[in-house]
Automatic annotation (TrEMBL):
It holds the Pfam family Bac_DNA_binding. GO terms for cellular component: cytosol. The keyword DNA-binding applies. Keywords: DNA-binding. The keyword Zinc does not apply. GO terms for molecular function: DNA binding; structural constituent of chromatin. This is Integration host factor subunit beta. CDD domains: IHF_B (cd13836). Belongs to the bacterial histone-like protein family. It comes from Allosphingosinicella deserti. InterPro entries: Hist_DNA-bd (IPR000119), Histone-like_DNA-bd_CS (IPR020816), IHF-like_DNA-bd_dom_sf (IPR010992).
Amino acid sequence: MIRSELVQKLCDDHPDLTGKEIERVVSAFFDAVIDQLQHGGRVELRGFGAFSTRERDARKGRNPRTGDTVDVDAKRVPYFKPGKEMRERLNLGAVQAAE
């Protein structure tokens, strides 16, 4: 699902709100998550999962086109850990198929 599909689904589920209102809510949500992660925080959505960041050390990489060695700087990358309820719902179909 992409952002526009999410906005459309929310519009369908909440016909009393305009598309612009829903777009502002979705943007505010994503902005809040990004702001929290930028400041080294963590965002936990019960039943869904938790967003955090992880540190990646500087390393030597390789340009796949030329094969040249390239220095890759240290950086923080986003990390998502799914919650217990999400894992259970995702695996519900596999458990039922096995029975």
